[in-house]
């Protein structure tokens, strides 16, 4: 038998089953509040992340060998102008151009691509040479501010802290001619390696003063390691004789076999330098800078990226010459062209 007070307490206390139901309902309420609050937090922070512009995640080295993400600028804002690698001009900042260090290309069969030589034009055809830069370096184009020649694109010099073409388009006629632009001097070109009766004196041109003031290196022939294409195989240029057969091309660009009518060798000073020319198909040649090409230029004027003899010029570097003579020949053809290390070149002996 219970007292009235005890009966009142028992009525106030819930049964065990009712108590568990209350706990369960409270748990559901707490979890729901947590989910709603978490969703709001995530949504709010995602909107902040989406407002970050021109940022991407790129891996950065970890001292433990793993890779952790770090913030880096967008590729469009990368300044690759100071020696960074490139594979296309678009990867260089304004005023810079991607100079080929390593590359590959497609070479057309001989005589299929149109090449203006000043004497003849090879026939037009569907074949178009291509080139792909595997590794390049952004270099200043003409007019860019520079400190050294190495800052400038191939073929340019750093003249008065500006990347400049060393040869002016303005012509001149003698050393006292003042028609050259400011910073240029009128200098005489190299003549043929062997002077002949009736030869005209070499002409003059405007050259940037830094180069014009240097001693003139006038051997304009082939290096002693050059191989010349003949019907019986390649022959070293030093071993060629008048009357031997060599390959040349006629004015229609057709490959022909003709006799050699002249050969020459010229003493080279110890200071002489030659152009080391490398093409995208692996052909290479060492030749004096003033040696004539098939397109009316000189070897030293050929620039990286240009098309030459059905290929792309990968490099054109001026290096010290290792021998004491340079050599040349003249085939008995309309053009006077010959194949030196399989590269079609002009002759300094052509009248």
TrEMBL record:
InterPro entries: Hedgehog/Intein_dom, Hint_dom_N, Hint_dom_sf, Intein_N. Residues 219-313 form the Hint domain. Keywords: Membrane, Transmembrane, Transmembrane helix. It holds the Pfam family Hint_2. This is Hint domain-containing protein. Coiled coil: none annotated. Residues 60-82 are annotated as: Disordered. It comes from Candidatus Daviesbacteria bacterium RIFCSPHIGHO2_01_FULL_40_11. SMART domains: HintN. The chain crosses the membrane at residues 21-42. One of its GO terms (biological process) is intein-mediated protein splicing.
